[in-house]
């Protein structure tokens, strides 16, 4: 298993492209899925709604976390030690 | 309590825990496996014979130790299963008191789940709190563990007091101690107190700070047990008492979001997992708040799935900590070369919590989200879905990346000695991993256990729309991770939380006590000694001599006898170690309870 991971890590650039192809395939496939059972109007009207939502969610969460840690909740590691 | 064939599963574990210290190798390990397995069989048997058992009349009250219905059965089933997995994981541990504490802890959880009245619920609730404190204290590697244990105990004592006040007021108002659904429309002070006490154990914000603090300080096996029982038992009690309380929807969503944001920042592997528990329990709290049949089914299913994958992740984290002695991301990395099997298990745990199709989170989490859309709580559905993306980011990507890939950031000695853990730890992880997959792939197995069987047929997790929704979110989360991963890398820092108030506040009280108050006390003591004490002591010494020698000697010397026995007792039982004293007290209470129930 270690050699398999090493093998894959040595080819990380082609792997990354393969991943992007996969993502593209998922998004294209999702456009063909019947949305009549969707929860909301938004999902029915915006094509690839959940892709945009997923990307947006991650960006919002990461930047919220960065902002909070910059806003003063981050302290040195031994903050509570006497 | 043995009437009509009912033998309380918690009692089995308590007896097992009391006998365990007397059992030596080679019988110890078989015994360690046997007791949880028997308990599990007992729970399964009770599941097929649901009803009310173990009714006991105590003073004016009726205590119910065995309310077994579809809701309590589902929770007891997974707790008993996790007790087997956790015990196998800790089979190599020589410190028998850890195993004793763990079994008492599970017994408390099973007892609380089966109890049908507030009094027995409270007893088992406190048993859980005390026993789990010992799982923190048993961590001898971390010098901060004793302090963390005290913080944990104090917070839970506070929660227990809230609960007790609520019970008493509730009894005063209704004259009943039956543990039933509370009346939300006519909520009284007692309703909020009970809800607050239950919420503290479910780590509902703002009563949550104890969780990452305690779980990152407990012993390795201790944290595997703790991650399963306290919060999910509390979810069960909330589902029982507070279903449909819509304030819980708001609190649950806040938990889900705040938990994942802190987990994106944390530098400690078990604090990250602790924050993620808060986030995942947020889904369940929201589910309880929604309170419909589908939502309660979803909450139960998610608690079930969550115990398995979170146990798996904590077991993986424990394996890493045991192998390297490090638990900060700034001192880990690149471990796939040394611990490939642990990596595999952590990834299975990660994809399960991230709700990958074919894994357990996919069939459980979505039910709560579907219930929120069904009730037209659109913002709840969208925000919880946003947190799903964050969950994959944290547990599926950030955690394995920081621990197993990149360069090792610690010292070379700890990297050199790192290896996959012993067979029993691997076996426990394998069982948990297989169950995560089985539940996700053959979901009717899990759905068959859920409390509201009448609506089970209406919900299908593997619809093509749900698949496309999940795959899109997961795929784009992967893209976001590739683009932004450096922003959530390892960074040496502590992140402030609400425990600041009692940790820093505690330090302030300590400073006050050490400086001004101590000075005043010393000055007062000096003045008293100089002025009043001398004359008082001289007179007292004379009368003491007279009493001791003249009167006691004249009678039968009993005072001398009592004193020497008291000294012996103090030498054996009161060694000034609060841990030991507490241990004796809890065991004694458990024994008394056992004797009382038995006779």
UniProtKB/TrEMBL annotation, chain A:
Keywords: Membrane, Transmembrane, Transmembrane helix. The keyword Transmembrane applies. The chain crosses the membrane at residues 17-36, 48-68. This is Uncharacterized protein. It comes from Desulfofustis glycolicus DSM 9705.
TrEMBL record, chain B:
Gene3D superfamilies: 1.20.5.2700. The chain crosses the membrane at residues 6-23, 30-48, 68-89, 96-114, 150-169, 189-211, 245-265, 277-297, 303-321, 341-362, 382-406, 427-445, 465-484, 581-598. GO terms for cellular component: plasma membrane. This is Multisubunit sodium/proton antiporter, MrpD subunit. It is a multi-pass membrane protein. InterPro entries: ComplexI-like_HydComp, NADH_UbQ_OxRdtase, ND/Mrp_TM. It comes from the Bacteria. It is found in: Cell membrane; Membrane. Residues 115-383 form the NADH:quinone oxidoreductase/Mrp antiporter transmembrane domain.
């Amino acid at each position: 298993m270690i050699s398999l991971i090493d093998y894959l890590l040595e080819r990380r650039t082609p792997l990354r492209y393969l991943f992007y192809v996969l993502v593209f395939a998922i998004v294209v496939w999702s456009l063909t899925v019947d949305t009549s059972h969707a929860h909301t109007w938004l999902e029915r009207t915006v094509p690839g709604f959940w892709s945009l939502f997923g990307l947006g969610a991650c960006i919002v969460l990461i930047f919220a976390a960065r902002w909070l840690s910059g806003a003063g909740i981050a302290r040195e590691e031994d903050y509570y030690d006497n | 309590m043995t009437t009509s064939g009912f033998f309380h599963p918690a009692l089995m574990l308590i007896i097992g825990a009391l006998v365990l210290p007397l059992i030596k190798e080679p019988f110890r390990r078989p015994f360690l496996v046997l007791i949880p397995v028997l308990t599990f069989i007992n729970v399964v048997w009770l599941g097929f014979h649901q009803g009310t058992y173990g009714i006991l009349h105590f003073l004016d009250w009726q205590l119910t130790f065995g309310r077994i219905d579809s809701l309590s059965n589902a929770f007891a089933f997974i707790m008993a299963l996790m007790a087997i997995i956790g015990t196998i994981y800790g089979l190599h541990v020589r410190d028998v008191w850890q195993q004793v504490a763990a079994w008492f802890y599970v017994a408390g959880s099973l007892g609380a789940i089966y109890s049908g009245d507030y009094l027995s619920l409270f007893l088992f609730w406190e048993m859980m709190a005390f026993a789990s404190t010992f799982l923190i204290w048993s961590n001898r590697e971390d010098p901060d563990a004793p302090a963390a244990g005290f913080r944990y105990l104090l917070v839970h004592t506070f929660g227990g007091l809230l609960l007790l006040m609520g019970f008493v007021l509730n009894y005063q108002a209704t004259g009943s101690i039956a543990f039933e659904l509370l009346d939300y429309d006519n909520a009284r002070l007692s309703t909020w107190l009970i809800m607050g006490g239950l919420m503290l154990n479910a780590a509902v914000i703002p009563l949550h700070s104890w969780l990452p603090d305690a779980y990152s300080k407990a012993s390795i096996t201790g944290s595997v047990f703790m991650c399963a029982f306290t919060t999910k038992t509390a979810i069960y009690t909330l589902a029982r008492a507070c279903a449909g309380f819509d304030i819980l929807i708001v609190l649950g969503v806040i938990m889900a979001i705040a938990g994942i944001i802190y987990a994106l920042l944390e530098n400690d592997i078990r604090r990250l997992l602790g924050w993620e528990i808060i986030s995942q329990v947020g889904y369940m709290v929201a589910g309880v708040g929604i309170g419909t049949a589908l939502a309660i089914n979803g909450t139960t299913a998610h608690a079930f799935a969550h115990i398995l994958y979170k146990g798996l992740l904590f077991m993986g984290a424990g394996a890493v900590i045991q192998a390297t002695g490090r638990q900060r991301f700034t001192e880990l990395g690149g471990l796939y070369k040394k611990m490939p099997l642990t990596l595999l298990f952590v990834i299975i745990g990660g994809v399960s919590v991230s709700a990958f199709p074919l894994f357990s989170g996919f069939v459980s989490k979505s039910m709560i989200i579907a219930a929120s859309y069904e009730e037209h709580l659109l913002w709840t559905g969208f925000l919880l879905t946003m947190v799903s993306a964050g969950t994959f980011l944290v547990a599926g990507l950030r955690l394995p990346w920081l621990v197993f890939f990149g360069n090792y950031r610690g010292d070379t000695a700890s990297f050199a000695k790192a290896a996959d853990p012993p067979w029993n730890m691997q076996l426990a992880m394998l069982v948990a991993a297989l169950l995560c997959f089985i539940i996700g792939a053959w979901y009717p197995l899990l759905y068959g256990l859920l409390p509201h069987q009448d609506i089970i047929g209406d919900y299908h997790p593997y619809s093509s729309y749900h698949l496309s929704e999940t795959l899109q979110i997961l795929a784009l989360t992967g893209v976001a991770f590739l683009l932004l991963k450096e922003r959530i890398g390892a960074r040496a820092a502590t992140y402030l939380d609400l425990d600041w108030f009692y940790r820093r506040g505690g330090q302030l009280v300590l400073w006050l006590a050490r400086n001004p108050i101590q000075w005043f006390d010393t000055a007062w003591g000096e003045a008293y000694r100089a002025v009043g004490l001398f004359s008082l002591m001289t007179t007292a010494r004379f009368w003491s001599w007279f009493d001791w020698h003249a009167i006691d000697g004249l009678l039968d010397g009993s005072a001398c006898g009592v004193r020497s026995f008291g000294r012996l007792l103090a030498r054996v039982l009161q060694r000034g170690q609060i841990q030991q004293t507490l241990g004796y007290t809890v065991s004694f209470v458990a024994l008394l309870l056992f004797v009382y129930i038995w006779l």
